[in-house]
Design brief:
60% helix; 0% strand
């Protein structure tokens, strides 16, 4: 985990700081290798010591992701809650073959895209580069997730434009966006676990790990239902991710309050 480090090593370059004087959080003695104050390394990679603006962006991003995912899960689960197993057939496309799929309900298709774009904007904020700059042994999940977020957003926007222009809603762009999203969710949970460690939230780390484990048996059904995307599989995958992300949002709120308090 990126946030784990030895308090006697420089947080940026990993230089051994032993023997350079008292290792205290208020020490301004620079690291001989890179010049980072020793106090910064003693504080560690915890978010409570990060720049306030950076922490606020993370909290806002987590709130946007959580809110959009809650609305999506409730919306998609409503037929199952109201009608039971028969709810799976409420808006299931029926066609003799994939090439003759009937157009889905445009308002519902647009709502799905709107919620996805809000969530993606939240992920963009959550993957903001660290302030101050990251340590050398940085997380690979953040930049990969950030660019994957951009790709999903672009594919989704193109698909929504085609739908609103009266074209066939079941386009290759829709399928591409869904495929990218299926890859996005587990990677996002790895990143949530990383942020949970920096926020010192054991609950977030545990819930994100459980979400990844719970997703595994649902991935094949999700891939098989990218066109017929009305089965329960996507709802279950998103539900676990929603709980983990909500835990991260609460953890970030606690971190920001603790950092803003006089005792913090």
């Amino acid at each position: 985990m990126d946030s784990d480090h030895d308090s006697t090593c420089c947080l940026r370059c990993r230089y051994d700081l032993g023997g350079l004087g008292p290792l205290t959080a208020d020490s301004t003695t620079p690291c001989p290798e890179c010049g980072t104050p020793i106090g910064r390394s003693v504080e560690g990679d915890r978010l409570v010591h990060a720049h306030p603006r950076y922490r606020r962006r993370l909290e806002l991003g987590a709130a946007m992701v959580t809110g959009s995912m809650v609305v999506y899960v409730v919306w998609r689960a409503a037929p199952y809650l109201a009608l039971g197993p028969a709810g799976a057939l409420v808006d299931m496309p029926i066609a003799e073959d994939v090439g003759h799929l009937p157009p889905p309900d445009v308002p519902a298709h647009t709502l799905r895209g709107g919620l996805l774009l809000v969530a993606l904007l939240g992920w963009w904020l959550l993957t903001t580069p660290r302030t101050p700059p990251a340590i050398r042994r940085r997380s690979w999940t953040r930049p990969v997730l950030r660019w994957l977020t951009v790709l999903v957003a672009l594919a989704t926007l193109v698909d929504r434009v085609i739908v609103l222009a009266g074209g066939n809603a079941w386009t290759g762009w829709f399928t591409l966006a869904q495929l990218l999203w299926v890859a996005h969710v587990p990677l996002a949970m790895l990143y949530v676990r990383h942020l949970g460690a920096r926020a010192e939230s054991r609950a977030t780390r545990t819930l994100s790990l459980l979400a990844i484990v719970a997703m595994a048996p649902w991935f094949v059904p999700c891939l098989l239902t990218i066109i017929f995307a009305t089965t329960l599989a996507p709802v279950v995958v998103q539900a676990g991710a929603t709980i983990a992300t909500a835990s991260l949002w609460l953890a970030l709120r606690r971190v920001n309050r603790r950092a803003a308090s006089p005792a913090g």
